[in-house]
Amino acid sequence: MTEKEQKCKEGKVWLVGAGPGDAGLLTVKAARLLKKADVIVYDALVSAELLSWLPDRTEKIYVGKHAGNHPVPQEEINQILIREAKAGKCVVRLKGGDPFVFGRGGEELEALAEEGIPFEAVPGVTSSAAVPAYAGIPVTHRDYASSFHVITGHAKKDGTLSIDFPALVKLGGTLVFLMSVSSMEKILKGLMDAGMNPEIPAAVIERGTTARQRQICATVGTLKEKSDLAEIHTPAMIVVGEVCTLAGTLGWAQKRPLGGKQYILTRPRQNMSVLAERLRALGAQVIEMPAIRTEPVRPNKRLKEALERMEMPGEKKDELWLVFTSPVGVTTFFDELREIKYDLRKLLSIERNIKVAAIGSATAGKLGEHGLFADLVPEVYSARELGEKLAAEASPGAHIMIVRAEEGSGELVPPLRKAQLEVEDIPLYRTLYDVHPALQEEVRELLKNGEIDGMTFTSASTVHGFVRAMGGEIPSGIRAVCIGEQTAKAAAEYGMETVVSDRADMDSMVEKILETAEEE
Length: 520
Ligand code: SAH
Hints:
Blueprint: H1 3-6, E1 12-17, H2 28-36, E2 39-42, H3 48-53, E3 59-62, H4 74-86, E4 90-95, H5 105-114, E5 119-122, H6 127-134, E6 148-152, H7 165-171, E7 174-178, H8 184-193, E8 201-206, E9 214-219, H9 223-229, E10 236-240, H10 247-250, E11 262-266, H11 273-281, E12 285-289, E13 293-296, H12 301-311, E14 319-324, H13 327-339, H14 344-349, E15 353-358, H15 361-369, H16 383-393, E16 399-405, H17 413-418, E17 422-432, H18 437-448, E18 454-457, H19 460-469, E19 479-482, H20 485-493, E20 497-500, H21 506-519
Parallel strand pairs: 1-4, 1-5, 2-3, 2-4, 6-7, 11-12, 11-18, 14-15, 14-16, 16-17, 18-19, 19-20
Antiparallel strand pairs: 7-10, 8-9, 8-10, 13-17
Helix pairs in contact: 4-5, 7-8, 11-21, 13-15, 19-20
Bound molecules: S-adenosyl-L-homocysteine (SAH).
């Protein structure tokens, strides 16, 4: 099925649960729908990690809060859904947790039903079970609780709670109170007044499943005081019951090597996810920010001409070096060969000694995937080093063909020219900067609040791209894990605290991130 056919012909709304924060808890169905949506209508509970996961160019409508912190009225949200669906779009209405668990999902579907708009509900992982799980609290356990109950702690306009405390106490199951931070005192008192033993274990968990998860374990009698001391804020939930005692033994989330850490990865979209997955597997929350995206120079007349010249009989029989300075460059090079239907047998028939140079191990690895094994990979990752090493290695009169980004480093060519080699610098792709405003705003806030434990940069252009995407300025002191000295230099210019990975590959980046995490 083509992408177009997958899109719906008439408008439809999918009411989708986004899970409690950890992007890994998005369901497979939700992930598929987000990729094909024409418009995503989302609210406040969605984390930055999840936001970074939404496709760049899909239209997004934020209905969490109006400026000035007023919630967008439900009626207005309903009208947006109706309007977008009637325009024939695939609308994904994304909500935190599960859409029907205190999410007003039912009301939204009723409004759609009334208008005859087709819809589907896609349940999500509800925070009421997942957040305790990330704190090491199983909501039921054969020794402690045979039921669990999810209750809203949201007070009525007059400040009272409509909770039947005696009934809850009598049930004896685990009690999970959502939206309960501001009414914590009333809830705990209500339970004790209804006869609950103040010694019963209780916990409050803030921003569960995310890198900023905090949990306080106490008793029904002491939780309020401890929670105030720790300054627990919403979103948070109260869990009451014997199962809370298990948190000490079963708590696992923060014990992971990168548990409690949050990183921003900036790279071209095409080859980002490997590092993200590695860091997530170690427990980190990862915001993937394609600060830059690449676009091939197309049609690439210069590449075509250079290839044609290479084939000409009687041309110099000297050495010819193909030089690659990034994995994207390699991919784009082969994409372009395909685009112009350049048959690789032509290269084989050229009577020249063709050699291949790569700036670092990741680029060399990419070449290997295409069956080319680099003759030269300098130990130190930098454009200057590549230029110097190549100048020393190439035989006199060699022809150097560099295929790389339009705005490539100025340090590669001079050493080659100095060695009187014939250099052709062919732009293969250009870098574009785009970050959707919702993510931009969220990330700026995270940086400002010191909630980012580190960022990764793989080239100076990703550094510039990121800062530009943030509006030209970032707070100083942000930890930057960089590939290459030039990249670190660029990051340092913006006041970042830099470390350089030992090698130019993902393993080395992961090692450096683990090292810096341990130091803290
Ligand atoms: N539909 C959502 C709940 C919406 S009500 C779900 O199924 O999860 C919002 C409340 O959920 C918050 O006030 C808080 O009590 C709870 N909540 C949601 N995400 C949370 C998180 N990551 N950590 C702690 N509490 C969370």
